[in-house]
Amino acid sequence: MAPWLLLLPAMAMVLLHPPTAAQAQPSPGYYPSSTVRAMAFSEGYDNLWGPQHQRLSQDQKALTLLMDSSSGSGFKSKRSYRNGYFGVSIKVQPGYTAGVNTAFYLSNSELYPGNHDEIDMELLGTVPGEPYTLQTNVYVRGTGDGAHLVGREMRFHLWFDPAADFHHYAILWDPDQIVFLVDDVPIRRYAGALLLFPNREMWAYGSIWDASDWATDGGRYRADYRYQPFVAGFQGFKIAGCEVAAPSACRPVPASPTGTAGLSPQQQDAMRWAQQTSIMVYYYCNDRTKDRALYPEC
């Protein structure tokens, strides 16, 4: 069997941590993914690296990325944006995947090397018996560059097994807030003062790569290429927002049903549930090793 067939939805897997009734996903009351149409991969994206490790479906609506000891693979949006909704459905590989990073993110690192902005959603691989970790992060104006990283990480053990089926991961980036969504449930909202907020044009990216130095238990478990290739499936590509060349009248995708700043009460309840149902495993503001002078929002 070809390795990318492992990603077919028909392939079932026992959940490592099956959700209880109390953990059933709440309704956020607003589903921004339903307001954005899915596109063919080639309509919105180009290969960035590792083309030999990509498998595009015949209808161009599903892409499989592979990583082995020779290379990973990645793609990049055709256009840059100054705000928008960026979403994709992802399914990762079960079994031993330590050190493997499956990422969907926004960045302008190629335009501003050494001084870039970035908004990340990363599924960090694991060892059998332990859940995947979803890491979200925000870097602003070079704080992700060089030796002194100033990251704003929040990490989650999700209420489902991301290797069992496809789920939709999205970044909603407005001029004054960033909302991270999983199946339309807000899991994190980030807002900061001008100097702490990314407000320059960015592109959307997806990739699979070897992050053994830190991804799994701080680097304790590394990629083991006896289990290669490592496979990740992407489908349901959705982008909506204001391109850099769009007129000033262009308005971003609203983060709430009312279109006002912030989230609705129902969305806030869903986000509290996501952060309090024993799944938020790291929050940078609670990390006593951090220099608080670098994180005034905390």
Overview of the molecule:
The protein is 5% helix and 34% strand. Residues 1-22 have low confidence and may be disordered. The protein is mainly beta. It has helices at 41-44, 265-276; strands at residues 45-49, 54-56, 62-67, 73-77, 81-92, 100-107, 118-124, 133-139, 154-156, 167-174, 177-182, 185-190, 203-210, 230-243, 280-283. The strands form 2 sheets. An 8-stranded antiparallel β-sheet has the order 1-4-13-6-7-8-9-15. A hairpin with an 8-residue loop joins strand 7 and strand 8 (133-139).
Topology:
Blueprint: H1 41-44, E1 45-49, E2 54-56, E3 62-67, E4 73-77, E5 81-92, E6 100-107, E7 118-124, E8 133-139, E9 154-156, E10 167-174, E11 177-182, E12 185-190, E13 203-210, E14 230-243, H2 265-276, E15 280-283
Antiparallel strand pairs: 1-4, 2-3, 3-14, 4-13, 5-10, 5-14, 6-7, 6-13, 7-8, 8-9, 9-15, 10-11, 11-12
Domain GH16: 20-234
InterPro entries: Beta-glucanase-like, Beta-glucanase/XTH, ConA-like_dom_sf, XET_C, XTH
GO biological process, one term: cell wall organization
